[in-house]
Design brief:
The complex is a heterodimer of chains A (about 350) and B (about 290). Chain A is an all-alpha fold and about 350 residues long. Chain A has helices at about 5-10, 15-35, 40-65, 70-90, 95-115, 120-140, 165-185, 190-200, 205-210, 215-240, 250-260, 265-285, 295-305, 315-330, 330-345, and strands at about 150, 155-160, 160-165, 240. Chain A has one domain (about 25-345): ABC transporter involved in vitamin B12 uptake, BtuC (Orthogonal Bundle). Chain A is built from 15 helices and 4 strands. In chain A, the strands form 2 sheets. Chain A has a two-stranded antiparallel ribbon. A two-stranded antiparallel sheet of chain A has the order 2-3. In chain A, helix 3 (about 40-65) crosses helix 8 (about 190-200) and helix 3 (about 40-65) runs antiparallel to helix 10. The longest helix of chain A is centred in the middle third of the chain and has 27 residues, at about 215-240. Chain B has one domain (about 1-280): ABC transporter involved in vitamin B12 uptake, BtuC, CATH 1.10.3470. Helices cover about 75% and strands about 5% of the residues of chain B. Chain B has 11 helices and 2 strands. Chain B has helices at about 1-30, 40-55, 60-85, 90-115, 140-160, 165-175, 175-180, 185-210, 220-235, 240-260, 265-280; strands at about 130-135, 135-140. Chain B is globular. Classes of the chains: A mainly alpha (about 350), B mainly alpha (about 290). The interface between A and B is large, with 53 and 52 residues.
Chain lengths: ~350, ~290
């Protein structure tokens, strides 16, 4: 049923009419969303969009190229700080500062990718992890970046126009997210994307077929870092403030969790994972207000734990989801989606 | 010169902690090729258990330490049985994610129970008094840390060299299939490996708790340094891991003393990346290319 007959069918962006219609419909839904919902919901959607960009970027590295990174909070921080610093100290307009932040981040990704050529598995994990830690340490101790206090982010502006209200911010963030999503889907259909997948499946076989390992591995790091850097810059504007303390190891793990939960090697999965985990993250902070579960958890806290630490339940839930996904559904939410799709296509057999 | 020796002593004391964490990681890595990211939180929970036993139940320090080691053994075994064994044919990434998940769960549990407050960890050793030799003060707590780590390493060495269980563990590390053919219950050995590693980590946790303060973030830094030490020495070599841990402690302390205190914790990772660029499998391990 998914038989492809010529090369064009393989590279086209919308494989079937259904995909095309679904894409147009979801774009329309995103366009009318700010007129339908309140400011808080819009803020959550903004965060989801930003995290989705990171998840897509990380998925290019982890899911498609098969490398591991525990340092993406570092790229996130680099993107956020370079965009804000360019605008505040350099007077660069937002339209240039945003891609510039992505490129600076990509440069660091390229540099980190160089030692990664010789490393794999745990060694790569520790190298990337060390990178993430180092970035946070350096930023929080440097005068130029405002030290521990962080810096205020300016407004996103296009010439005379400033994105001040929630819907205006939403328009900017969501358009960047949509463009980057389409770019990622497209990238994976090109020669570069295929090279990434070939490296993931077998490095030696890929090399034998003429894939330049060192170039494509570092490129994968750079592309991934570019996505994360742009997302970091957007996050600075969404939160209106950047501080080094928030770019910690837990954030890197959360990004990785988004990719794992959504599904490795799937752009759509990355978006779903980012949406689910971002939503959970926000809702679990105020879990005591939830109906039914909230009072019960408070009671448990009072009897066995400490009610003040109830927000920590977020880590427990995230950890449990990560473990459950690896054990029961290694393809993540995308795998579940595929299974449901196949079931309905074959129905009633 | 006094300053130099102060740095050496401080570096050796903290290096001893890193070395124990590194050993705990390597013990698991050698048998199952998983870098255990939950190691730090396992040690942190154990230290909290010791704290709770001493403070809330009035148990003496040494009894509490013994009970904590027993708890750590059970914790390691339970984690392996509950999280790693059910995973069917997972790849390295999947295993790393499982240990990260376990880390998040333990971190959340500790935060839920004990909050983010810092608790002083009571030990029967002085942090200020100690032996003074030619103006160089060696505090009791430094001696205690250093000696305990050496004793622990000696015990591990004896265990792997002279006991049947230790030999069986080494056999599983070398070749799982051959070990199975020789009648070694490899899965049970793997479970016990987690227990042993957890105990080693718990000792490190109880040594670090009085130096740092006891809170859920306590082991974050030592875990990374211990991991880095293990990588420095080579993830598959026990002596290498111990050496790497001590070296990292010394390098870090010297850098903090002579160059810049602010960037003290960054230097460890710079060293790691540099060493890995030259020797991709660590200092004491010969690198081999994986075949098709």
């Amino acid at each position: 049923m998914d038989m492809k007959r010529d090369y064009y069918e393989d590279i086209q962006l919308f494989r079937t009419k259904t995909v095309l219609i679904a894409s147009v419909l979801s774009l329309a839904a995103l366009a009318v969303l700010p007129f339908m919902v309140g400011g808080y919901t819009l803020y959550i959607v903004n965060l989801i969009a930003i995290n989705a960009i990171v998840a897509i970027g990380l998925n290019i590295l982890v899911g498609y190229t098969g490398q591991i990174s525990l340092g993406h909070a570092g790229f996130f921080a680099i993107g956020a700080y370079s965009c804000v610093l360019l605008m505040v100290k350099g007077g660069v307009p937002f339209v240039i500062a945003l891609p510039a932040a992505g490129l600076i981040s990509a440069l660091f990704g390229f540099l980190l990718g160089l030692p990664s050529l010789r490393l794999e598995g745990p060694y790569l994990a520790i190298a990337t992890l060390g990178f993430g830690m180092a970035v946070t340490q350096i930023i929080s101790h440097s005068e130029f970046t405002g030290g521990h206090m962080g810096i205020e982010a300016p407004r996103m502006s296009f010439g005379p126009f400033e994105a001040r209200t929630g819907p205006q911010q939403y328009a900017v963030i969501m358009s960047v997210a949509v463009i980057m999503t389409i770019a990622a889907v497209n990238l994976m259909k090109t020669r570069v994307g295929r090279a990434f997948v070939a490296i993931r499946d077998s490095e030696i076989a890929a090399e034998a077929m003429g894939v330049n390992l060192s170039w494509f591995k570092t490129l994968s790091f750079a592309v991934s870092a570019f996505y994360t850097g742009v997302a970091g810059a957007l996050m600075a504007f969404a939160l209106e403030h950047v501080s080094a303390g928030s770019f910690n190891l837990i954030l890197s793990i959360t990004f990785l969790a988004m990719v794992i939960v959504g599904g490795l090697g799937s752009v759509m999965g990355a978006i779903m994972g980012a949406a689910l985990l971002t939503y959970l993250q926000i809702k679990l902070q105020i879990v005591q207000e939830a109906p039914l579960i909230g009072p019960f958890l408070l009671e448990v806290s009072k009897r066995f734990f400490n009610p003040a630490g109830l927000a920590n339940i977020q880590s427990i839930v995230f950890g449990a989801i990560m473990i459950a996904i690896v054990i029961f559904e290694p393809l993540g939410m995308h795998g579940i989606y595929l299974r449901i799709k196949r079931y309905w296509r074959m129905w009633p057999f | 010169m006094v300053f130099f020796f102060d740095l050496v002593i401080g570096g050796l004391a903290i290096g001893a902690c890193y070395a124990l964490v590194a050993l705990a990681m390597v013990i698991i890595y050698k048998t199952s090729e998983v870098p255990n990211f939950a190691q730090g939180e396992m040690a942190m929970i154990s230290a909290f258990v010791a704290y709770a036993l001493i403070e809330s139940y009035g148990v003496g320090f040494w009894t509490a330490a013994g009970l904590t080691l027993l708890f750590a053994l059970c914790l390691g075994v339970v984690l392996e049985l509950a999280f790693l064994r059910p995973a069917k044919n997972p790849n390295i990434l999947g295993l790393i994610v499982i240990t990260l998940g376990a880390e998040m769960i333990l971190y959340g549990l500790a935060g839920w129970k004990w909050g983010a407050n810092q608790h002083p960890f009571p030990v029967p050793f002085s942090e200020y008094g100690g032996v003074t030799y030619a103006d160089v003060i060696i505090t009791e707590i430094n001696i205690w840390t250093f000696v305990t780590s050496l004793v622990m390493m000696l015990l591990l060495f004896l265990f792997f060299r002279y006991t049947k269980l230790g030999t069986a563990m080494k056999a599983v590390q070398q070749n799982v299939f051959a070990a199975k053919a020789m009648g070694i219950p490899t899965r049970r050995i793997l479970t016990f490996t987690w227990g042993l590693s957890s105990v080693t980590g718990a000792v490190a946790g109880m040594l670090i708790a009085p130096i740092a303060t006891l809170d859920p973030n306590m082991m974050l830094d030592p875990l990374l340094k211990g991991f880095a030490g293990a990588v420095l020495g080579g993830m598959t070599s026990l002596p290498g891991a111990a050496l790497g841990g001590y070296m990292l402690g010394l390098i870090e302390n010297f850098f903090g003393g002579y160059v810049s205190l602010e960037f003290k914790s960054v230097v460890a990772f710079a060293v790691i990346v540099l060493v890995l660029c030259v020797k991709p499998s660590g200092l004491l391990v010969r690198h081999f290319e994986r075949k098709v």
